[in-house]
Amino acid sequence: MTSRDKVKCHPSWAQTGPNTYSQPSPSSSAELEAWLAATFIVTPGKTSAEHWKNMIKTRQMTLYFFPEERQLFIQGEHHILDGRGVMNFWDRFFRALALPAKEDMMKTDGSEISRLPPRSDDLLDMAENKPGRGEQHALELLAPLVTMNAPICVPVPHPLPPCSSRNATLELRLSSHTTESIIAACKAQHLSVTAAWHASVVLATQSIQAKRNSASGAGARVGTQFACFGNFDLRRYFPASDATSLPDAYALSNHHGVLPYVVTPDGKTFSQVARELASFYQQDLPKADAEVWSALGPMIRMLVPEFTRTPLEETTPALSSLGVVDNFINSLYVDAEGKGGWRIEDVWFGDTVTGPWLECFMWAWQGRLSVNTCYNPAYYTHAEVDEFNQLVQEKMLEGLGVVGRGPWWKL
């Protein structure tokens, strides 16, 4: 592999239960070499797509290289590295390749532990106002989910078949022209692209729910409440780094939190739904809720049993927006003289799905929006997921008033 190689970056996460383990720091060069051999794997004669379909859990974050495709693929647990963290990883990785550090990176002197990132819990004031208040407020945050009686979801046949051990994904990449039109329409209406996409997923899911219920003889019955967990990057709330902190101390790791939200689209315009979601995503968390930090830990502990029981039956799509990836990963990394370089051709993000829901991702890279849906093939076909992706795009274009569409819009 030369410094002029073009590569594609493929982060992916594996969903697991609340198992924990520790990884001792290598105490010798031999142990370090063994760790490197186990966590950086060159896989000739195989594609990243083949690896993804049959991917199994690894004990540690593992980086794969597929030489025929010139693709790098990092696999790991979501609770170790979040979306922002994995983009920061790729940026620091290629910076290190383009401008290698002068110090010996292979030394094992016991100082490695000091370079581990801090926990979010240690950087935020998680103290309760009074004993038990954190748990009480967590119940208050979760209350809208408990009281739902008409969820918007994707109907699937019951009884549910066993979950497949294979992974599946389908990406819809919009053209530069379509992307530009969507961004322009969002700016004109003072909407975020993430909120417009979320509103589109809500309406697309509701349409598919009506279609499937009608086909099954249940009538065109649809839900009226779409429940989600919004992802919030907590790094913006951390204290500023001081002289004792490492540079980029907060860049990696998993520093995101989730909050529940229920949106009711009936009787509202597309813009009203999107604006409501934008207000949710753009809120300053501690200003909007002074007790939010004390409730995050108890809330997650309450949710773990629900997310780890089997079989999982939730069929409301989950959403995660990576934003504009170019803001985190450059297209080109060069050395100090501006020579050589690593060119990034493409990026991709995905997640394993162990139940009957759709895992929806959205990001922009080099002027094009991508809508990627990961799913378990035991519950959905390729054609069904393609219909879902196309419908999400259609709802977004219609809702934003983007006209003049044609088959060339996906080119």
Automatic annotation (TrEMBL):
<feature type="region of interest" description="Disordered">
    <location>
        <begin position="1"/>
        <end position="27"/>
    </location>
</feature>
<dbReference type="InterPro" id="IPR023213">
    <property type="entry name" value="CAT-like_dom_sf"/>
</dbReference>
<protein>
    <recommendedName>
        <fullName>Condensation domain-containing protein</fullName>
    </recommendedName>
</protein>
<feature type="compositionally biased region" description="Polar residues">
    <location>
        <begin position="13"/>
        <end position="23"/>
    </location>
</feature>
